[in-house]
Amino acid sequence: MQALGLDVLFKGSNFLRLLEGLWKALGISLIAVALSIVLGILFGIVMTVRNPVVKAVCRVYLEIVRIMPQMVLLFLVFFGTTRVFGWNLNAEAASVIVFTFWGTAEMGDLVRGAVTGVPKHQYESAFALGMTKAQAYLTVIIPLAIRQLIPQSMNLITRMIKTTSLVMMIGVVEVLKVSQQIIEANRMSSPNAVFGLYLTVFILYFVACWPFSLLAKRLERKWSN
Amino acid sequence: MADALLKIEHLRKSYDGNVVLKNINLKVNKGEVIVIIGPSGCGKSTLLRCINGLEPIQGGTIKLDKEIIDSTSKSITKLRQRIGMVFQSYDLFPHKTVLQNIILAPTLVQKRDKKEVIAEAEQLLDRVGLLDKKDSYPRQLSGGQKQRVAIVRALCMHPEVMLFDEVTAALDPEMVREVLDTMLELARQGSTMLIVTHEMAFAQAVSDRVIFLDNGDIVEEGTPDEFFNHPKTERAQKFLHTFEFEHIK
Predict the structure, then answer these.
(1) CB–CB of A208/A19 below 8 Å?
(2) Is pLDDT above 90 for A223?
(3) Which of A34, A163, B24, B97 would staple B11 via disulfide (CB 3.0–4.6 Å)?
(4) With contacts defined as CB-CB under 8 Å, which chain B residues touch A131?
(5) Which residue of chain A has the CA closest to B55?
(6) Contact present, B71 and A147 (Cβ < 8 Å)
(7) Within its chain, how far is the Cα of B100 from the centroid?
(8) CB–CB of A143 and B95 under 8 A?
(9) What's the farthest any 2 CA atoms get from each other in chain A?
(10) pLDDT of residue A225
(11) A219 contact residues in B (CB cutoff 8 A)
(12) How far away is chain B from the Cα of A148, in angstroms, using its nearest Cα?
């Protein structure tokens, strides 16, 4: 235990603090995920619009999100905008904003892909059976799009959870930051804690993301054609 | 003679100035089986799609009984319920079982009683020999089985006309027969059918009248015997000749 630095975990309320940190990371990511799903569906529908101006704006937004490192975006929002616009933004709120900005773009792109990915003949056979547009969408197109969408969005969700490890850079005390604090506090008494703590963080992240991965795989298998 | 069930007059269809159907005039009587043949790209499939209002047309009229088929009007969904269509691509809904595929439109669109529709669907499935597949998903079926289910799905709407758009073209050769047999059976029962196909022997066997389409025009029209054995136009002769082979021994 000591050699691996795992003993520190059970000193005082250390483990509980780690879990609190994990909870904070999950809280940020899950709020952002929820917002991203709602906004992403809207954005995805907007992206299917044929208007070239709308298309170009969507494209630019998506590219910015893809190219920009999340950390730069965090710094820009937390340090940059608070300075220039003078508003009061705490680090958690800044994180949620950045993650939602990112998630909405990627989710929107997935929604767009799922809706346009439903083969044309599915629309046609629905219409050929006398369905109205609304009936065709409700019973055929949307269910098919969701089947394609859910496994992919699980992947996005796990990426968003993992990336919360960056928010400590703007001062959010999440699981990684807590582990650093514990390591610092025990530097003299248990120098090997650096291994045990980071290993624990690794496992915690794994435990948080694994269910989504599993669910994605199961759904994919269930719905595969 | 009674009024035709389906009446096409001066139909013109083009895509971006590219004329696909020039001036199609065609009357289909109740119970008649019409086979439309012609080289690929001649507009056969487009003709069927226009009849079902899946394509806007640029001129002429298509009438079912007395009602005009207009792809842009609100009444098109009502008219499509009276016209069954089966496509070349396997178009069953992949997220629904065979039975769900069949009863979806009758219950949702026609608001018929679910029990009654299920009973009818099972009876139809039994007739095409697929009753034991009713709870299977399309991915678990062969191409030929899928097409037979697609035919049953269209039939369950009680259409007055059935359109078949090269339904065997994407099938493996050994699957073709079972689908064609299903269609022959329908013809025997007096269904009104318009069939686009490349199966010449089948066309000859099933049809009351053959329409030869080339370059967006009806070039020749006649009974199967007239058309296949004594084609009048040079274009039809040439087309039919492509299905014959020289003996090399």
Answers:
(1) no
(2) no
(3) B24
(4) 77, 105, 108-109
(5) A124
(6) no
(7) 22
(8) yes
(9) 77
(10) 53
(11) none
(12) 11
At A9, which amino acid appears?
A: L
Average pLDDT, chain A: 90
ipTM for this model: 0.88
Strands B67-68 and B59-64: antiparallel
Q: What is the mean pLDDT of residues A82-105?
A: 92
Of residues A208, A21, A14, the one with CA closest to residue A6: A14
In chain B (249 residues long), the average pLDDT of successive 10-residue segments reads 81 87 91 91 89 90 87 86 90 93 94 94 93 93 92 93 90 87 90 92 91 90 90 88 78
Q: Are A127 and B54 in contact (CB under 8 A)?
A: yes
**E strands of B77-119, at which residues?**
83-86
Distance from CA of B176 to the nearest CA of A (A): 21
Domains defined along chain A, listed by start: 7-223 (1.10.3720.10)
Q: Which residues of A touch B77 (CB under 8 A)?
A: 127, 130-132
Q: In whole angstroms, what is the distance from residue B177 CA to residue A127 CA?
A: 28
Q: How sure is the predictor about A1, in pLDDT bands with cuts at 50, 70 and 90? A: low
Concatenated DSSP letters of B5-19:
SEEEEEEEEEETTEE
| A65: nearest Cα among A42, A43, A93, A34 | A43
Mean pLDDT of A12-16: 88
Token pair of B43 as six digits: 């507009």
Put simply, whether B157 touches A (Cβ < 8 Å) is yes
On chain B, the residues whose CB falls within 8 A of the CB of A119 are 89
Q: Give me the long-range contacts of B55-58 (CB less than 8 A, separation at least 24).
A: B55/B13, B57/B11, B57/B12, B57/B13, B58/B12, B58/B13, B58/B14
Q: How far apart are CA A174 and CA A166, in angstroms?
A: 9
For residue B93 the two structure tokens come to 């809904």
Q: Which residues in B lie closer than 8 A to residue A147 (C-beta atoms)?
A: 95
Q: What tens digit of pLDDT does each residue of B87-118 get?
A: 988 789 999 999 999 999 999 999 999 999 99
